[in-house]
Structure formats: structure tokens, C-alpha cells
Amino acid sequence: MTVLDPSPRAGVPTGASVRDPVMDERTRSRIGYGLIVCGLALVPWLIVLATGVPALVDSARESLTWVGLDGLEAVGLVTTGLLVLWRDPRRTLAASATAALLLADAWFDTTTASSGADLISALAMAAVAELPLAVLCVTLTIRGLPRAGTARPRGGPLGSR
Fold first, then answer.
1. Lower CB density within 10 Å: C or N end of the chain?
2. Residue 87: which region, alpha, beta or left (left: phi > 0; alpha: psi -120 to 50)?
3. What letter would DSSP give residue 117?
């Protein structure tokens, strides 16, 4: 069993015969590994932010803020990618949280950037990376939700008895 195999304890069926009703194997693999790569690609950037490069941040507190936000994005992307690979329905939760983080990052980057090169850089990152990844995560969320009439109520107003 590799680190990318689902745990038998997770309640997720294992084996090649399991079919994902939301996406085919090739799409699932590309999206899953793509999200993991994007999340891991943030690690060098986190190191740059954590070392507090003076040209990039004004203070240690600002550096901590950006490291925290980008770190959560990296964790969200990797987690969503793994859950996609594992065919785990909880991918919708991870994808929606990651989309919110990516949208917040794009917003904060563009609104806190000074004019000129900083603003152009922030807009480019939003257009090329953050917003497309957020759209992918929202799409994963919407496509992973149960269709109307397919969910079975478990009883009671809160779904349990």
C-alpha cells in the first residue's frame, strides 16, 4: 500500500474495479495529481515568505499572515488532490474550503498591492493561478454534491436518530 492508496479504515472502497460516478479515471488522475503538484509547488514560495524577504513584506507580522494563508492553500490543494485520487466524497468539503482560500488570496493580493509592478504581478497571479484553481475547486464541489432525489434522509430534522 502506498501513501496514495486509501486507508481501509477510511470507509472508501479500494481496488481498480471501483468506479467514480463523477469523473473517469484519466480525469480523476490528472486533477488529483495536478492539485497535489500545485500544492507542493507553493512550498518554495512559503520558504521565501517565511524568511521575510524585505522587498516582499513590510513586517514579520505581515510575513506570518501571508505564510499562514498560502500554507492553508497548499494543505487544501494537496488534501483535495488526495481525496480526488482516493475517490473520497469528502473531496467536496476540501475543494470548497480551498476555493474560498484561493479567492480570498486573490482578493487580498490585488487589494493590498501597491500600484505598478506589484499590482500587475498580483493580477497576473490571480488570473493565471488562483482564480482558475478556485474555479476547478468549485466545479469539483458542485459535481461531487448528490443530485436532487438521490440523497436518502436518515430521519429526524438533523439527519440522525
1. C
2. left
3. H
